[in-house]
Amino acid sequence: MDARGIDKVLAPLEGTAMGLRPGGKTASGQSVDFGHALKSALQAVNARQQEAAQLAASFERGEPGTELHQVMVAMQKANIALQAAIQVRNRLVSAYHDIMNMPV
Hints:
mainly alpha, 3 helices, 104 residues
């Protein structure tokens, strides 16, 4: 997999975090709803996993045009997207704990 393929997998997750400025604005000045951005990123991860599952099932049925390397690449993309989502979740939980432990 080349760098462009990885960028396509991680773009929904990275785009929400890297493009934000203080106050919930993007670099272009548009307002961003965090909940909507998180939901769309999770939907992208889910879509990757469903695509990989469909390709695997297609390969298992022996359908023509489905190659093993396509299935393996799709499964790795889904795995990378899931791992990135898990890391984002871990960072959010850590930030929540840090905020909750701040003295008032």
